[in-house]
Amino acid sequence: MTGATRDDARGLRGRVEERLGRANRGPVAMWFWELDRVLLLLAFLLIAIGLIAVAAASPATARRYSDGSHQIAPMYYFWRQAMWVGLSIPVMLLVSMMPTSLARRFALGMAAFFLLALLATPIIGVEVNGAKRWLGMGIAQFQPSEFLKPVFIVSIAWMLSLRARDPDLPMVPVTLALTGLVGATLMLQPDFGQTIVFGSVWMILLMVSGVSSRIIGGFVGAGAAGVVAAYVFYDTARIRIDNFLFPDHGGAGADHYQTDMAHATITAGGVTGTGPGGGVAKFRLPEAHTDYIYSVVGEEFGLLACAIIAVLFLTIVVRVFVKLLDEEDAFRVLAAAGLAAQFGVQATINMAVNTGLAPSKGMTLPFISYGGSSMIALSIGMGLLLAFTRRNPYLHRSPYIVR
């Protein structure tokens, strides 16, 4: 490196330190120092892994959806995902810069809009693979349930946090009614997997908010009864559960085939994988780029790579909950806990389906699976999580949570 180059590098470093130094009290500098940079790094790692995974799955999906008159380029889905990532990262960073009050108002407004969109989906939605989950036309289609998840969770957290001021407010039945409305609408699409995510996160928020164990136990019992009722009266749930529990008697249903192929694919590469581009089983796997991308990772990069992904999701959840131990704002505690729980629950369901531990649910793997609606919605959710976990580095905090 020449002397001039070294001087240029020192000058650039000096300008960065001047702009982001702790002595700088500008909004960007304060955002940088308040931000949980480890959490942001974990999100970026998952996004980078997702791009690699979509690149591995893209040729299989392109061949599957090509026909004699329409050929899809092998890397078509990778380049589209790269475009969505390019749009999503600025969204994540902009949302993470919002102060708590603005982020809360943003979430409440978005929740109202996307709840109305979700209610309209069974009526005017676009049907894809036998399910009405999309609104819009052509490339402008979007999935309301994906966008609703993070903002709905923040809205429920805000309602439950009001109990800290007035325990007599009927926020538990109000949030139950709203969650039930969302669940019933999702099951009309049908989308049983998303229903489980909304219901599970709502239960977690109840526990974090300090609702009595008696009430929690009652809801757990009601949830178990709801699963039984879904099995008896809801064909989608019954078919998937039967194909999972009784694979030898469930016939050649799509769910049975998908879970069998997912298991065959994820184990085909052993511990270290076949290497990038070396997978063969992925070409027989439906939805290799979305629901079953975890299996593609297992084949080409090995079960070790699958374990690393699982650890990254676990690290995000654990880091958020540990960081909340000394948080004094009830709303921030509930909102951040709910958003972290959403990432954890959704990832757990997807990985369980791919490994044969749960029936097929049509659930994507956060930041890993292909999808524009999913990527932007997850970036909004991560941006909100980063906003609610920001800490003033000069503020002393009590070691106790005040509710």
What do you see in this structure?
The chain has 403 residues and is an all-alpha fold. It has one domain (30-388). 68% of the residues lie in helices and 2% in strands. It is built from 14 helices and two strands, in the order H-H-H-H-H-E-E-H-H-H-H-H-H-H-H-H. It has helices at 3-20, 27-34, 37-65, 76-96, 100-124, 144-161, 171-188, 192-209, 213-233, 235-245, 254-266, 293-323, 330-354, 372-388; strands at residues 126-128, 131-134. It has a two-stranded antiparallel ribbon. Strand 1 (126-128) and strand 2 form a beta hairpin. It is globular and about 65 Å long. The termini are far apart. Residues 250-254 and 398-403 have low confidence and may be disordered. Keywords: Cell shape, Glycosyltransferase, Membrane, Peptidoglycan synthesis, Transferase, Transmembrane, Transmembrane helix. This is Probable peptidoglycan glycosyltransferase FtsW. The chain crosses the membrane at residues 38-57, 77-95, 107-126, 146-162, 169-186, 192-208, 215-234, 301-322, 334-353, 365-388. Belongs to the SEDS family. FtsW subfamily. It is a multi-pass membrane protein.
Keywords:
single chain, 403 residues, mainly alpha, two-stranded antiparallel sheet, 14 helices, 2% strand, globular, disordered C terminus
Note the overall shape.
globular
What is the average of the pLDDT values?
A: 84
Distance between the termini: 57 Å
Please give the number of β-strands: 2
How many helices?
Answer: 14
Sheet of most strands: 2 strands, antiparallel
Helix and strand content put the structural class at mainly alpha
Largest sheet, spatial ordering of strands: 1-2
Number of domains: 1
Q: Could you give the order of the helices and strands?
A: HHHHHEEHHHHHHHHH
Low-confidence stretches: 250-254, 398-403
Range of strand content:
under 5%
Radius of gyration: 22 Å
Name the helicity range.
55-70%
